[in-house]
């Protein structure tokens, strides 16, 4: 797994080096274990970066565009978020992931500027509403019953998107040692974009 990513020349030019990516992967694995989620059973559809300045966001974007193309550039909850599809995937938790999410900063300050979260897909059941989906996922995993985890439920509003896109974000309550987050949503991000 490491050799596959190490030869990806993207890491020679990113503001964050390969070591930070490897550390991110390990922290996600630790969080997934706490969440009792086997990520190999689900599709990881994208990885996300967090930065605090527009200059750093532009630096990431410039580099990523040397290795891929813009799939989407939308305003989400009032800030620009780019989705970049890489020509060559990154291997993450045994899966080939092609899409990187790069939000431009708004008002929030992140303690760590680097790789921040992943999103994986648990599809809607037939005729299931967003509220029913959230309740089902919560009941399946019982994350809200763990004192070690923080849960945030959201449904981002994006201009032009036709599919509902609720998400459940899970992170450690104590972020001092592990700042990463795992999010769950019902549709692959490319399906969301196609109908926008």
From TrEMBL:
Name recorded for this polypeptide: VOC family protein
Native source species: Basfia succiniciproducens
Top-level division of the source organism's lineage: Bacteria
Coiled-coil regions, chain positions: none
Pfam families the UniProt entry points to: YecM (PF06185)
